[in-house]
Amino acid sequence: MPTVIARHDVKDMEHWLASRKRAELFGPLGITNVRTFVDPLNPTQVAVEMDVPDMDTLLIAMQSEAFAEAMAHDGVLRETLVLLVEV
């Protein structure tokens, strides 16, 4: 199961950290061990590290309206999203 890091910018770090949207979306995909990170010098830069059982399923889900709405709710600046996959 690969570990994936999703790095992106957010409008409000405190709001992003408090949101339950990640758990709501990642849980049904079997994504586990989700950990959040914040750049201490620039708290609008954040990351999520997670274990992903099926990358294809995640990539398809990320194109869904549900993911777009969750990212918008969390204040994620979608154009800054970078995915890094363990090799």
Protein architecture, described:
The protein contains four helices and four strands. 33% of the residues lie in helices and 37% in strands. It is globular and about 30 Å long. With 87 residues, it is α+β, with helices and mostly antiparallel strands. The chain has helices spanning 13-18, 21-26, 55-61, 65-74; strands at 3-10, 32-38, 45-51, 76-85. It has a four-stranded antiparallel β-sheet with strand order 2-3-1-4. The termini are close together. The protein has a single domain (3-85), classed as Alpha-Beta Plaits, CATH 3.30.70. A hairpin with a 6-residue loop joins strand 2 (32-38) and strand 3 (45-51). This is EthD domain-containing protein. It comes from Paeniglutamicibacter kerguelensis.
Topology:
Blueprint lengths: L2 E8 L2 H6 L2 H6 L5 E7 L6 E7 L3 H7 L3 H10 L1 E10 L2
Antiparallel strand pairs: 1-3, 1-4, 2-3
